[in-house]
């Protein structure tokens, strides 16, 4: 189901949502639980800022007017841009500034588009002189081959937006109008169209960034097929009771061999990879729905809300309630009708440290 809103509602950092869409995947259409797409249009007052916020999704931010500077904590290298040199901080300098453990982006202006990837910890600062209007498309897990997503660097990539990307973003936002006028109970807007349009927008950006020389390499089979198969299983069955045995069966290798492959190629283990994906999905739901913590814990495969809370606190340094409070900053996010209880049971539940797969979760 796709749920939309057209009226201005408060957002983070002093911003206001002017349009907003949340597309919830329908398993009957073959979508995995991770195939969630959000899109919207936000207006930020002069001097607005928010963050730091850790990215849990792939997000394209298209500046319609105004200015945006992004500070990335612990970024390796520089923030990649295309086109003419962009000012940094409005002082005439160009390129990115590395301030110790932080990298500050060039000032992005109307017509620029930037891609943020999961794992980045970003602080957003908007023009001090004028209001800034942005459109965004956020997809938790684009339905693209994993080797294509692996091409994306671990820092923001920005370039002037093309007519094609702008039209795709506007088409997704138009779905928010259809969903909003119909209402969540009677909406005929399928989640399928926004999900595929969101994937297409990310794919088009990758193509344009590669053509501009901002993304190097090719989507070759550089990943072991067993790893790809195991990662695809996690994508498709994130909330189910799967573990190392199911991942190794999907990969057609022995569990011990899969552990060696993950350690050698990804620097982690299959079980840690699985639980990292579950935590990222859970935090994404905290930030983008008003589902209860208990319901989110169930959806991402945790045994209890307390189990989920422990994992989130270990990875993000704060409990689910604080993540939701910091990200929302105001009104509750949209959620499809009938998708769950909205009561917050953040720290209730048992103290189990065993995951839904029946295996010990990482400490």
Helix coverage percent: 25-40%
Question: What count of structural domains?
Answer: 2
> What is the CATH T-level topology of the largest domain?
Jelly Rolls
- The CATH homologous superfamily of the largest domain is named Jelly Rolls
Terminal Cα span = 36 Å
Q: Which residues sit in consecutive blocks of at least 5 with pLDDT less than 50?
A: 83-100, 181-189, 329-363
Order of H and E elements: EEEEEEEEEEEEEEEEHEHHHHHHHHH
> What overall geometry do the principal axes of the alpha carbons give?
globular
Largest sheet: 9 strands, mixed
Structural class: alpha+beta
* Overall strand count: 17
The CATH first-level class of the largest domain comes to Mainly Beta
| Radius of gyration based on Cα positions | 20 Å
The overall pLDDT, averaged over residues, is 76
- Please identify, by name, the CATH architecture of the largest domain: Sandwich
**Proportion in β-strands:** 15-25%
Number of helices: 10
Biased composition (Low complexity): 336-363
Protein name: HTH araC/xylS-type domain-containing protein
GO molecular function, one term: sequence-specific DNA binding
Region (Disordered): 322-363
């Amino acid at each position: 189901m796709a749920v939309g809103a057209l009226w201005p509602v408060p957002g983070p950092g002093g911003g206001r949502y002017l349009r907003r869409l949340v597309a919830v995947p329908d398993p009957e259409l073959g979508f995995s639980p991770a195939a969630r797409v959000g899109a919207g249009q936000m207006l930020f007052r002069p001097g607005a800022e928010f963050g730091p916020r850790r990215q849990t999704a792939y997000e394209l931010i298209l500046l319609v007017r105004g200015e945006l500077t992004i500070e990335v904590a612990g970024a390796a290298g520089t923030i990649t841009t295309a086109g003419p040199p962009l000012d940094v901080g409005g002082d005439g300098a160009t390129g990115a500034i590395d301030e110790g453990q932080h990298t500050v982006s060039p000032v992005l202006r109307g017509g620029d588009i930037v891609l943020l990837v999961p794992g980045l910890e970003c602080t957003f600062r908007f023009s001090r002189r004028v209001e800034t209007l942005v459109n965004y498309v956020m997809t938790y897990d684009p339905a693209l081959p994993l080797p294509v997503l692996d091409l994306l660097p671990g820092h923001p990539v920005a370039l002037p937006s093309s007519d094609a990307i702008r039209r795709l973003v506007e088409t997704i936002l138009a779905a928010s109008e259809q969903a909003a006028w119909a209402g969540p109970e009677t909406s005929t807007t399928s989640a399928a169209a926004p999900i595929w349009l969101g994937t297409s927008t990310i794919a088009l950006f990758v193509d344009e960034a590669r053509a501009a020389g901002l993304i190097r390499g090719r989507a070759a089979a550089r990943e072991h097929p067993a790893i790809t198969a195991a990662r695809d299983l996690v994508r498709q069955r994130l909330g189910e009771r799967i573990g190392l045995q199911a991942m190794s069966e999907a990969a057609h290798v022995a569990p011990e061999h899969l552990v060696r492959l993950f350690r050698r190629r990804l620097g982690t283990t299959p079980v840690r990879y699985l639980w990292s994906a579950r935590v990222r999905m859970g935090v994404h739901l905290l930030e983008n729905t008003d589902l209860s913590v208990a319901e989110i814990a169930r959806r991402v495969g945790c045994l209890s809300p307390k189990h989920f809370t422990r994992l989130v606190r270990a990875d993000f340094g704060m409990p689910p309630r604080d993540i939701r409070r910091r990200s929302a900053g105001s009104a509750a996010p949209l959620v499809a009708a009938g998708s769950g209880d909205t009561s917050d049971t953040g720290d209730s539940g048992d103290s189990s440290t065993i995951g839904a797969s029946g295996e010990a979760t990482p400490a």
